[in-house]
Amino acid sequence: MPLVADAGANSLLRFLARRRVPLGFVTAVVTAVLAHPTQTSWRVGLVIAIVGELIRIWAAGHLEKGREVTRSGPYRWTAHPLYVGSSVMAAGVVIAANSAIAGLLAVVYMVATLTAAVRTEEAFLRGRFGGAYDEYRRSEGEEMNRRFSMARAWRNKEYRAVVGLLIGFVFLALRVAAPI
């Protein structure tokens, strides 16, 4: 029986990992509907969300997806800096939205999808790079001196997160200006 439960859990993890962007869009729309932003919550949330996006841009500017185990930039300190940045961005959005229910929804979404993404991504990286990934995780991997590249961040499609963040904060600004 445990194999069936494991198969079901793995299937759920793969589903959440693959569908995290559309689920994030749904979460963002629900958060926007539940939002009660104030000028102060919007400003504070925006600053925090920008910090999160800057972390993501920094990470994306070092990452060569699927080609190597990246060990430069923020990858020297954490295995998943894109997810760290996403979490900081989400905290900023929640603060800007000024809604406890939206905050709870965001926490459930982030924990579920990022846990799934990390597990499936790590399984992929172990399968693709074997011992090199395990050495990296144990901080035993060879040093990598790579400069940040905005072109690399662009190739990694980080502009999509920037656009999404801008749209979300414009909408929240409209909610501040004309509360519903």
List the helices and strands and how they pair.
Elements: H1 2-18, H2 20-34, H3 39-60, H4 81-97, H5 100-129, H6 131-137, H7 150-155, H8 159-177
Helix pairs in contact: 1-5, 2-5, 3-4, 3-8, 4-5, 4-8, 5-6
Characterization of the model:
By secondary structure, this protein is mainly α. It contains eight helices and no strands. It has helices at residues 2-18, 20-34, 39-60, 81-97, 100-129, 131-137, 150-155, 159-177. The longest helix has 30 residues, at 100-129.
Features:
180 residues, mainly alpha, 0% strand, disordered N terminus
pLDDT averaged residue by residue: 90
Question: How many beta-strand elements?
Answer: 0
- One letter per element, helices H and strands E, the order comes to HHHHHHHH
Instruction: Characterize the largest beta sheet: strand count, sense, and whether it forms a barrel.
Output: none
Task: Assign a percent range to the helix content.
Answer: over 70%
